[in-house]
Write a structure and sequence with these properties.
single chain, about 210 residues, alpha+beta, Enolase-like, domain 1, five-stranded antiparallel sheet, two-stranded antiparallel sheet, 7 strands, about 30% helix
């Protein structure tokens, strides 16, 4: 305790949004979770997950992905089912110059038949960096059992949490589902996701007048 590593320094992912995610977890664990609680055990520490890391390449077209990836999928005991849908099958791309049925850009989704959970998503096409965020949020929510990396090395608080709360549940209908997921940087999805982080249920609702220029 007292020594923390994040971002490029910990050797996991050289992505800005991963470093943001790790910094948010550290700030919460050290300070924020105690603000409205006298008992440290009332509010569990956040833990980092690295099985749902979205990434994007800002090329033309954009490329984005989230999930286990090909190598991890090959090593895992999964009964995969796959679906692929093309930009050219929907209406909006028509205004972008696509022709109906064009199969140039796509979204590919892989799921485990046994659990019915999405395990990997790949997107190639305009705004892929924004579209991938939907899946990152979904895959990060629900029930999750954390992997114990070093079972014999743990503080008293960590041992307590492992025994009392081996699983965590993130309600996909609450702002926490957005706050606890990684958000691709730099992408417009940051605007929508970070808006949820500004919600404070302790603050009274303020009626703000919105004036539109005529």
């Amino acid at each position: 305790p007292g020594v923390y590593s994040m971002g490029d320094a910990n050797g996991k992912y050289q992505l800005r949004h991963v470093a943001n995610y790790e910094a948010e977890i550290l700030a919460f664990n050290l300070f924020e979770r105690f603000q409205n609680s006298d008992n440290k055990k009332d509010i569990l520490r956040r833990r980092a997950r690295y099985d749902v890391v979205p990434s994007a390449v800002f090329s033309n077209p954009q490329i984005a992905s989230v999930g286990l990836g090909r190598r991890a999928i090959e090593q895992a005991d999964l009964d995969l089912v796959e679906a692929k849908y093309y930009y050219g099958y929907t209406s909006k791309p028509f205004a972008m110059g696509y022709t109906f049925g064009e199969q140039k850009h796509f979204v590919k989704v892989k799921a485990d038949r046994k659990t019915e959970r999405i395990v990997d998503v790949q997107i190639v096409g305009p705004q892929a960096s924004v579209l991938i965020q939907i899946y990152a949020n979904l895959m990060n929510s629900g029930k999750y059992t954390y992997e114990i990396i070093e079972p014999d090395i743990a503080s008293e608080e960590t041992l307590y949490e492992r025994k009392a709360y081996p699983e965590r549940y993130i309600d996909p209908t609450k702002p926490v589902a957005l706050n606890y997921a990684m958000t691709v940087h730099p992408a417009l999805s940051e605007v929508a996701t970070w808006a949820a982080s500004e919600i404070d249920f302790e603050e009274p609702i303020r009626n703000e007048e919105i004036i539109l220029d005529e």
